[in-house]
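Bit of a strange request maybe. I'm writing a small parser for structure token strings and I need a real example to test against, not something I typed by hand. Could someone generate the tokens for this chain?
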Amino acid sequence: MQLESFFPYKLAVVAEGFSRQLMAVYSARFGLTREEWRLLFLLARARQMDSLELARRTTLDKVQVSRASARLEGKGLISRAVSDLDRRLRVYTITPEGAALFDQVLPAVQARASAITDRLTQAERAALERGLAALERAIGAEQSATDAAAE
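Reply from user aminoacidic:
Good idea to test on real output. This should exercise your parser:
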């Protein structure tokens, strides 16, 4: 089997290529790293989130979340506080400056994403959406089976 035809490899390469296209927008034009963008994106919607939830929802580990949040805090885009419920956790809140920046960045990122996906036919886009949803369900089912077997 060739690496180029191995499905996990192909999926990773395509995801990375798409991500790099978006990164060219938020990094070059707005000075955000991939990790910072992910945190800002989630906080713009939720307004506040703890470190465990951020790590879970971004696929970043705790160290990556900590470093990116420290940079965002240094830029005045978020604030961090120790959780009242669990002193080991940090609670992150987007600042008005962070929300304003997000409101500038999002349309530019969406435009780049649309420029890419608009190159697909409507049928290809629908098939891609169905395929991604099916793959997500399969991953969830496999994780559930793995978790059950471990118990």
